[in-house]
Design brief:
It is a single chain. This protein is mainly alpha-helical. The protein contains 13 helices and 4 strands.
Length: 350
């Protein structure tokens, strides 16, 4: 990540060449991290079970498979090859595709090959691309809500410190942090869908109907945003209270600047830096951890896919979801690193 504030006051981010050099360094670091992630995932799914004495081929086929099917999968995956050969085939398959062959039985997995499910006889990548937009839409929609309402509530609480609004907002924030997703989700369905009938609550693909899709996503967005908005309100309030006591804020007020300018232009820039850091981590983790929300509201996303794969012991699906969500976390943090320089000019591109 880029370095944070320096003691020498506001500092320029540098010219276009400095920005370009910074982007190149961050992209290179992200590429290295991607290779590390792929290797770690391979070790978790292939090496660790082997060291524990687990038959990996059986995990790919399922417990009900006959010995001949297990032997065929073992040959297709090349599990008898040296470890470095298995790593190379696994890594290469992501970028150029892979062919699984056992005798006369040949199965081709097109690039990007995130695995092949021998239980359902289909590539993992189409499953991921079919379900990823649902999870991404859930994460982005909830993120917009929790940013708007969480940050706004935190700023108002800091400006009205000790007031009835401040205490009420923090009580609600504490409730939001304490209540689990499956409780607030089922409660919202019971009230707004089953009780009042205001919202249908059933998921409709965006390609079928925008209004139907929006109606099916409102409750998941609000439920998920309620949890995160509570945390963002608390951190925004604490950060804003600290920043309002800084010398440069007092100087800005002493110069006669309007309070809206002092808060909006000066205080909010410094406040947004830790919020942006949290957003990068939370948004990336949310894409990989939306199991409870998607299960509660029956959303056909990655969370539901990995839950079903765990029930049926479909290891390639679990492996593919792990890879794609790890990549999502990596991209989210890369975007956050780049946005630091946009939000706070005191960040140095080094």
């Amino acid at each position: 990540m880029g370095h944070r504030k320096t003691s020498g006051g506001p500092r320029s981010c540098g010219g276009p060449l400095a920005v370009l050099a910074y982007l190149i360094r961050r992209l290179f670091a992200a590429a290295v991290m991607l290779v590390v992630i792929i290797l770690v995932v391979f070790c978790i799914f292939f090496l660790v079970p082997k060291w524990a004495g687990v038959d990996i081929a059986s995990s790919f086929v399922g417990k009900q498979a006959d010995p001949a099917s297990v032997a065929a999968v073992r040959e297709k995956l090349g599990l008898s090859d040296p470890i470095f050969v298995q790593v190379w085939h696994f890594f290469k398959g992501i970028f150029v595709g892979r062919t699984y062959a056992a005798g006369g039985d040949v199965t081709h997995c097109a690039a990007p090959c995130f695995g092949y499910s021998f239980r359902t006889e289909q590539d993992v990548w189409p499953v991921l691309t079919d379900r990823f937009p649902v999870t991404l839409g859930l994460a982005l929609g909830a993120a917009v809500l929790w940013l708007v309402f969480g940050v706004a509530a935190g700023v108002l609480s800091a400006l009205k410190r000790g007031s009835l609004w401040d205490r009420g907002a923090m009580v609600i924030a504490l409730s939001g942090v304490s209540l689990p997703i499956y409780f607030t989700g089922l409660l919202s369905l019971a009230i707004f869908s089953y009780g009042l009938g205001w919202i249908d609550g059933k998921y409709v693909p965006l390609t079928d109907s925008f209004s139907g899709w929006l109606g099916g996503m409102i409750l998941p967005w609000v439920t998920l945003a309620f949890l995160y908005a509570a945390m963002y309100a608390r951190i925004t309030r604490a950060t804003m209270l600290e920043i309002l006591g800084e010398d440069y804020i007092r100087t800005a007020r002493a110069k006669g600047l309007k309070e809206q300018v002092v808060i909006g232009k000066h205080a909010m820039r410094s406040t947004m830096t830790p919020i942006l850091t949290m957003l990068g981590m939370d948004l990336g983790a949310l894409i990989g951890g939306a199991i409870l929300t998607e299960t509660t509201f029956s959303l056909p996303g990655l969370g539901q896919a990995v839950l079903n794969a765990i029930k049926t012991q479909d290891l390639p699906i679990i492996l593919g979801v792990t890879l794609i969500t790890s990549l999502a976390v990596l991209i989210a943090n890369l975007v956050v690193d780049v946005l630091y320089a946009v939000i706070d000019p005191r960040v140095r591109l080094t």
